Amino acid sequence: VKLQAMRLQFSFWLAGLLCLSGSVRACELCAVYNATSASGQSASGWLLSLSEQFVPYRTLQFNGDEFSMSDPDYLVSSITHVVPTYNISPRFGLSLNLPTVYRSFKRREVRYSTTAPSQLVVEEGDELAFGDMALVARWTAWEKSEMEYGVVLNLLGGVKFPTGDTDRVEDEVEQARIFNSTLPPNTPHDPLGHSISGVHQHEISPGSGSFDGIFGVTLNTRWKRYFFNSQVQYYLRTEGEDTFEYGDELMVSGGPGAYVLLKDSVTVSLQALAVYDTLARAELLGTKSDSTGMTAWYMGPLATVTWLERFSANAGGDIPLRIVNNGFQNVPNFRFHAGFSYRF
Amino acid sequence: VVGSLNAADPHIDLIEPFVGNQVSIHYWTVPNRITTLQYRDFVGTNGVISTSSSSGGWSNLYTAERLPFPEHIVWVDARTNRHRFYRLRVTP
């Protein structure tokens, strides 16, 4: 029974590991794997999972250096994923990720028009909308589980669909287009050069308008009560709304952990995680923007609880050690992620 | 980026007609200072501002936040008079 409980919890850690998206886009694999792990990887059938990513972007940085200003702009992002999963077999499962995106923000903007003078607009408020849904497949490529040790290798792949609203991306590109028309011909410039804020419209937008590729690999090793889990995620972004293309994102994370409680019905584990997250520059109107993209290193704890082999929950946080960003951007103060799963 | 910045000598880089009855003004803000774009419709022929002018003193068009780096600003203004004068005001 203990072996079964350990295997179950062993998989739950992956849920937390994958809930680590650094950008303001939804982390499809995070949510999907939260659902996948609820079954303990060895169970076929239906699962339902809820997961949450909460990230306040209140730190101002220019080219990697932090600074302060009076009454600064901010963005607080909360993405809640609802993920139904069907495991066709112990080794293969399909998950549908349905994100709901909430943003609270304040941002300044010089608005441009071809028929009226420029206008300084300070926009403050919050928005709630459905984001881009995704379909992700899981394949357990290799698994070896014994009482003393265990190794599991998972491959994940999927597609994100352009189902979320993209009005803000469209407006941002249109503003860039008008700004460009004010410049002398052939003048080199940043396509987001019109922006005077560290919070851009594409970061608030619930949808990207693009079909994106989702790829992931997880490797999990356990010896007695101790384990080391690691994972790699890659998001291949394609052109979406009105020439806008979000930057590709690569995340690598992992770290050691241990079971602190191992009962027949309940398991509890704690893990220390290190995260490397790099987001490429976005492109619009055929040019990459030097006001987008960043590379960050985080560390933080992850706690996972399982109960009666049907429920699992995890929660963790990431503290930034270093964030190197391009241009003027609001960057994360910290990241909180949590999930809950139920196996039917 | 567009143009270059001499922080010790803030200046307007370019003023040119824009779409319709508008004009675009291009300049850089000064790092760690508040840079304000101002306008005035009347200036004396000798360049001296007449305090008796019906338009009063300089009026603010746009005040940029104090930031540790320069920002390139393009401000589009309406051409409501035969002439209009612009300047940058830089304060700590």
Brief description of this entry?
Chain A is mainly beta. In chain A, 13% of the residues lie in helices and 55% in strands. Chain A contains four helices and 18 strands.
What does this structure look like?
The complex is a heterodimer of chains A (344) and B (92). Chain A is mainly beta. Chain A has four helices and 18 strands. In chain A, the strands form three sheets. In chain A, strands 1-4-5-7-8-9-10-11-12-15-16-18 form a twelve-stranded antiparallel β-barrel. A three-stranded antiparallel β-sheet of chain A has the order 3-2-17, with no helix packed on it. In chain A, strand 11 and strand 12 form a beta hairpin. The longest helix of chain A is centred in the N-terminal third of the chain and has 16 residues. The radius of gyration of chain A is 21 Å and the shape is elongated. Chain B is mainly β. Helices cover 0% and strands 43% of the residues of chain B. In chain B, the strands form two sheets. Chain B has a three-stranded antiparallel β-sheet with strand order 1-2-5, with no helix packed on it. Chain B is globular. The relative contact order of chain B is 0.33. At the A-B interface, loops of A face strand 1, strand 2 and strand 5 of B.
List the keywords.
heterodimer; A: 344 residues; mainly beta; twelve-stranded antiparallel barrel; three-stranded antiparallel beta sheet; B: 92 residues; 43% strand; disordered N terminus
Strand order, main sheet of chain A: write it out: 1-4-5-7-8-9-10-11-12-15-16-18
Span between N and C termini of chain B?
A: 24 Å
Regions of chain B with pLDDT < 50 over 5+ consecutive residues? 1-6
Largest interface: A-B, 29 and 25 residues
Count every beta strand of chain A, where a strand is a DSSP E run of 2 or more residues: 18
**Uncertain regions spanning at least 5 consecutive residues of chain A:** 8-22, 34-40
What amount of the residues of chain B lies in strands?
Answer: 35-45%
Structural class of chain B: mainly beta
Termini separation of chain A comes to 20 Å
Radius of gyration of chain B: 14 Å
Output the number of helix runs of chain A.
4
